[in-house]
Specification:
- 2 copies of one chain form a homodimer.
- By secondary structure, chain A is mainly alpha-helical.
- Chain A contains 9 helices and no strands.
- In chain A, helix 4 packs across helix 6.
- The longest helix of chain A is centred in the middle third of the chain and has 25 residues.
- The interface between A and B is large, with 72 and 72 residues.
- Chain A binds a DNA duplex (30 and 30 nucleotides) through helix 3.
DNA sequence: TTCCCGTTCGAACGCTCGTCCGAATCGGGA
DNA sequence: TCCCGATTCGGACGAGCGTTCGAACGGGAA
């Protein structure tokens, strides 16, 4: 599964053939089907194991913490650190979310909902005035900062992963601590024309 | 190209067959090859057109603006608005970045480097003390908030796209306006064990 | 009307894919 | 030593893929 994650992460789930995985693991093509009933099940098991481990460690670190800010700190650092330590698996989890179908897809979606809900509730508690900012939008902004990591992070040239978590947490907490300016204000001088560009002629 | 973008966005580049595009456009399978020399060229042209339009509009809006904060405001709002107006194309651009090969890939990478460099320089100017935070990390945190949009944004239930841009811009500017706490501080009590989870037994 | 050329398409080609089957192999208990 | 269940694998199968080719179409110029 570890080797498969790396193959999926590098080539993408669809471009990676079962023969690629066979070569990467040293197990013969048909030998793989002794352990996994299909390529999709293999992807599912990778995602499931990854998610379950992430959630399990999180709930351990979260035990007994009441302050929402402290809880969010633990969440962000846990997420980012896990990302750094399991880059291939987390890339597969982030990037191949739509590849699963049927019950496989549903089971992963359930876990995702659980996790997002946890963060979402935490964010709601931190936002003092509930109309100050839409908690859903703000939550996904946070997930964006964290989940985008796989597209650019290179351990050999970038800061340590722990530092990364601190920076993202800091930006987020400081970013939502001051009330947002109301709607209507903004770049009024911006070009209002031209929406979908393929229609322009 | 518009219809193809939607097919690629919905099914993913690899899972989408040329026959799917044929069905979505009403053009016969071989008829498509009168306009495009390959499936990959079609993907390339979508990404290129999308990027070029984005950059073109940006440079128009940016003309004459000196203040780095104002420039960044225009960048973020332009990016997010463009994202909202061309969700399918931007999903393809964000999600299928690794699908291109050879010269196609290089040409898109060049544009990406140009764009990221523009934002990066802007962020550097805003960060007063250059050692306060790593500009590269901060820049990609911003891109993360913006580019993650395609995974969750639903126009019918979420805030308007312009509001979204304002929120992201606000989080980012407030988030980087105060000096980051130094390294070393953090969750010292966090579980230090267990890095890659597939090795745990 | 005839010709021509830009456009469209049905049908097929070769290839790679995920999956399966039946045989070969291995190692510990009787 | 023999046996048996667990494990491994070479080789094949059918399906779907991207791509090609030669024929057909259609409308403006001569």
């Amino acid at each position: 599964m570890r080797a498969s994650s790396e193959v999926f992460a590098e080539k993408g789930y669809d471009r990676a053939s079962v023969r690629d995985i066979s070569a990467a693991t040293g197990i013969s093509l048909s030998g793989l089907y002794y352990y996994f009933s299909s390529k999709e099940e293999l992807l599912f098991l990778i995602q499931k194991t990854c998610f379950d481990t992430l959630l399990e460690r999180l709930s351990k670190d979260l035990a007994g913490l009441d302050s929402p800010v402290k809880r969010l700190s633990v969440i962000v650092r846990n997420h980012v650190r896990f990302f750094g330590d399991n880059m291939a698996e987390m890339k597969v989890l982030s990037h191949e979310a739509d590849a699963l179908t049927g019950d496989y897809r549903k089971e992963i979606s359930d876990r995702k909902r659980t996790y997002v809900g946890l963060v979402h509730r935490c964010v709601e508690e931190i936002l003092e005035a509930p109309d100050a900012a839409n908690p859903r939008v703000v939550t996904f902004a946070l997930f964006g900062m964290m989940n985008w990591i796989y597209t650019w992070y290179r351990p050999e040239k970038d800061d340590s992963i722990d530092r990364l978590g601190s920076v993202i947490l800091h930006i987020f907490l400081e970013g939502i601590s001051s009330r947002l300016p109301n709607q209507g204000k903004g770049v009024a001088e911006a070009d209002p024309s031209g929406l979908p560009f393929f229609d322009k002629n």
